[in-house]
Amino acid sequence: MTGLSTNLIHADDSKSRVPDVVTPINVSTTFKYDEDPANLDAVADLPDGYKEDQFIYSRLQHPNQVKLEAVFDEILGGYTVVYSSGLGAFYGLITHFNPKQVAVGPFYHGVKRILDIHERNFGLKQLSYSEEDLEKLQPGDLIHIETPVNPQGTSKSIKYFADKAHAKGALLSVDSTFAPVPLQDPFKFGADIVLHSATKYFGGHSDLLAGVLVVKTPEIRKQLADDRTYLGTNIANLESYLLLRSLRSYELRIRKQSDNVEKVVKFLAENKDKFKTLRTITHSSLQTESFVKEQLPNGYGPVFSISVDSKETAKLLPSRLKYFHHATSLGGVESLIEWRAITDPYVEQTLLRISIGVEDPNDLIKDLDQALSSFN
Ligand SMILES: Cc1ncc(COP(=O)(O)O)c(C=O)c1O
User: Fold this and answer.
1) Which residues carry this modification: N6-(pyridoxal phosphate)lysine (predicted)?
2) Ligand 1: distance of its center to the CA of 180 in Å?
3) Using CB atoms within 10 A of its CB, is residue 373 exposed (0-12), middle (13-18) or buried (19+)?
4) Rounded-to-integer distance, Cα 246 and Cα 250, Å
5) Average per-residue pLDDT for the chain
6) pLDDT (average), residues 310-328
7) Is the pLDDT of residue 101 over 90?
8) Which residues line ligand 1 (CB under 6 A)?
């Protein structure tokens, strides 16, 4: 088996159409048909609608999206479908699997909004993770978990939820955005579908939106890709070029970010009492349950959260930091901090979410030290 970094650079080699080492940006939305009339077929005469390797119109498929899926298939251990955003991927998931009930907990608020739309339009029922609610699941229903969870950065046991789902004939989908490969492989613990906002670590430079679904069979992949064509949620041409470029260096970034976060969280946890306004620090590295280390054998996700004594401190803290931009999102090479209440209506207003980048960890630690100390 080839290693992750080799796959990131070479898994799409066979899909190259030109000798260029750097994949060209393809902006064409439409592609010329075969010049030989003998090779033309009516779509109604083709069993699968269109030929797999044919480029017709970029909403169906286009060269760099196909290359992306070749890389993702190899590194994510399943059959992948790329989307225009992480939410586009979740929308594809809910549309295709069409559960009557979905069990969800606190998680990224945008995903919740999609479930709210389905509840409004189609009567989808949202259940909690309580034992009582999980008992109500029926075949075809879905449990959706995010692990590590946004914004706290703490882990849930994938195996626990997989067992609960499968006992009822339901499916488990896992949003693994906060701990992508090689940190976590949700399929190992029983997930049926894996989702990533590729906007985050796979993109890594805060300059593109993309999403990925990973499923276990080529048949489901094909159905999701067909739905994507008519939902209009395929990744855009320019974005697919940028994402492919980003994947080449992905492993270097995620390993460095994961190393960095462990050092930063350790510093804060060991020095918590030194900072008068610091109340809590949440991160998988601080959890003691044994499943956490099993799920994250190669390092922790680079996002964690802190809570401080008041809403006022939470609003002020970002302005006292030098190396953390005050902005939403995560996964980029630059560290970010966000007073999360600006975008998330469901969190405590004293919470700050921190996304660790690839800077020198000592500089990040010194910066947090001086900013938190300034409130003492
Ligand atoms: C855990 C998680 N899942 C999904 C999404 C949605 O991804 P996107 O912004 O690419 O639509 C986000 C966005 O922040 C997220 O944090």
Assistant:
1) 200
2) 13
3) middle
4) 6
5) 97
6) 98
7) yes
8) 85-87, 108, 110-111, 146, 150, 175, 177-178, 197, 199, 209, 211
Whole-number pLDDT of residue 46:
85
Ligand 1 atom nearest residue 330's Cα: 14
Task: Inform me whether the pLDDT recorded for 51 exceeds 80.
Answer: no
Q: Which residue has the tokens 């993309």?
A: 210
Which burial class, exposed, middle or buried, applies to 180 when counting CB atoms under 10 A from its CB (0-12, 13-18, 19+)?
Answer: buried
Coil, strand, or helix at residue 66?
A: helix
pLDDT at 109: 92
Sorted by where each begins, the domain ranges of the chain are 4-248, 250-373
**How many other β-carbons are positioned within 10 Å of the β-carbon of residue 100?**
14
Q: Whose CA is nearest to atom 10 of ligand 1?
A: 86
Average pLDDT over residues 244-251: 98
pLDDT tier, 358 (very low <50, low <70, confident <90, very high otherwise)? very high
Does residue 49 surpass a pLDDT of 90?
no
Of 352, 360, 300, residue with least CA distance to 333: 360
The minimum-distance atom of ligand 1 relative to the CA of 328 is 14
Locus of tokens 């994507």: 228
Atom of ligand 1 nearest to the CA of 146: 1
Size of the chain in residues: 376
Q: How far is the CA of 106 from the centre of ligand 1 (A)?
A: 14
140 three-state secondary structure: coil
At the topology level of CATH, where does 4-248 sit? Aspartate Aminotransferase; domain 2 (3.40.640)
How many A from CA of 195 to the centre of ligand 1? 10
Q: Say how far apart CA 337 and CA 67 lie, in whole Å.
A: 33
In this predicted model, what pLDDT tens digit does every residue of 251-308 receive, in sequence order?
999 999 999 999 999 999 999 999 999 999 999 999 999 999 999 999 999 999 999 9
**What whole-number distance in Å separates Cα of residue 56 and Cα of residue 43?**
12
Closest CA to ligand 1's atom 8: 86
Q: What is the largest CA-CA distance in the chain?
A: 79
Given pLDDT bands bounded at 50, 70 and 90, which one contains residue 47? confident
User: Is CATH 3.30.160.390 correct for 250-373?
Assistant: no
| Residue with CA nearest ligand 1 atom 9 | 86
